[in-house]
Specification:
This protein is α+β, with helices and mostly antiparallel strands. It has four helices and six strands.
Length: 168
């Protein structure tokens, strides 16, 4: 009998690795890496997550099929825009060619939301530090003017339009 008890005890303890913590099943939203896309704040958290971890999968889930990115080309004096496919290619290229991206979302300057809570426009200040290598670091400050939409109030928000209002 002692022999079986010893084998059982050794078998159970051998399966327990004290250096491998258990899976955290808590639902603390404040500690979640990926934000809840049914909230505006969750969209901004997910953009930041995407840039920090250079994750185009999460980033792509934020973009609507009819997505448009717009920025001002000050040298030519015109607005330049592109759609979702080019945005994914451009962002993927950025993510692949940098060592680090640090995105900080600052103050929300303005928010307007329709009465059905299915369309919202948010203007928010940001700081982006792009590290290509230790001797080549770019800092960009500006405003992101995002229009987000969803079919109903319980669906995730999708970015329909992003106007970059930075002076890069």
């Amino acid at each position: 009998m002692k022999r079986w008890s010893l084998i059982l005890t050794v078998g159970i303890t051998a399966a327990c690795n004290p250096f491998a913590p258990g899976l955290d099943s808590s639902e603390d939203d404040d500690l979640a890496l990926v934000g809840d896309p049914t909230t505006i704040d969750g969209v901004f958290q997910n953009i930041r997550y995407s840039y920090t971890f250079r994750d185009t999968t999460i980033y792509g889930q934020l973009l609507d099929d009819d997505y448009t990115f717009i920025y001002r080309d000050y040298d030519r004096g015109v607005d330049v825009s592109w759609g979702r496919d080019e945005e994914i290619r451009t962002t993927h290229g950025l993510f692949q060619n940098v060592q680090r991206l640090d995105l900080v979302w600052n103050n929300i300057v303005s928010v307007s939301t329709d009465s059905l809570n299915t369309l919202s426009t948010i203007t928010r200040n940001f700081n982006l530090t792009v590290t290509f290598n230790p001797s080549d670091i770019e800092r960009i400050d500006g405003y992101a003017n995002l229009s987000v939409a969803r079919a109903n109030a319980t669906d995730p928000w999708r970015i329909v339009r992003w106007r970059d209002e930075s002076n890069f």
